[in-house]
Amino acid sequence: MPPAILIRALAPPDIPSILEIQSASPEASRWTAADYARACDGLFHSLVALRSEVLAGFIVSRFAADEMEIHNLAVRPDLRRHGIATQLLTGALDHARSRGAKNCFLEVRHTNTSAISFYLRHGFTQSGRRLANYSDPLADALLLSRPL
After folding, report:
1. Which of 48, 103, 142, 145 is at a distance of 20 to 30 A from 124, taking alpha carbons?
2. Phi and psi at residue 132, in whole multiples of 5°?
3. Where exactly are the structural domains of the chain?
4. What kind and span of H or E run contains 121?
């Protein structure tokens, strides 16, 4: 039986591990340590997943009115395909529902087929496209959404 996954709120001591995961995940949004520190201040809802006391992944989201937006989600490459991203997403969506959110939105590079497939499996649908939204490398952003 695989080790249990513990989901908890992001804390400032987690930031170096999050930056390592982000560095190993070229598809993740590029945030700085200061950005993640702000994600701990209550303006964002940020969760981390621990597996055997190792920080395995994280999700950062934000609320406005009755909407939730996912800003970043990443899992350590060596721990992918173990349900960690699903547990993080579920935790964030459950929290959003408890705060009265009605919809969830995110954007993803159109070339990130793994992430697109993951979100489609979790009830998201494409609601738009932003041409040349990303740089380094240049890519369109797909806008995905789902009701909560």
Report:
1. 48
2. 50, 40
3. 5-147
4. helix 113-121
Of 69, 73, 97, nearest in space to 85 by CA: 73
Q: How many CB atoms lie within 10 A of CB 135?
A: 7
Residue with tokens 């695989």: 2
Distance CA 79, CA 44 (A): 25
Residue 64 is inside which H or E element, if any? strand 54-64
Q: What is the pTM of this model?
A: 0.93
CA distances from 26 to 29, 75, 88, 96 (A): 8, 11, 19, 27
Task: Give pLDDT tens digits along the chain (148 positions).
Answer: 677 899 999 999 999 999 999 999 988 888 999 999 999 988 899 999 999 889 999 999 999 889 999 999 999 999 999 999 999 999 999 999 999 999 999 999 999 999 999 999 999 999 999 999 888 788 899 999 999 9
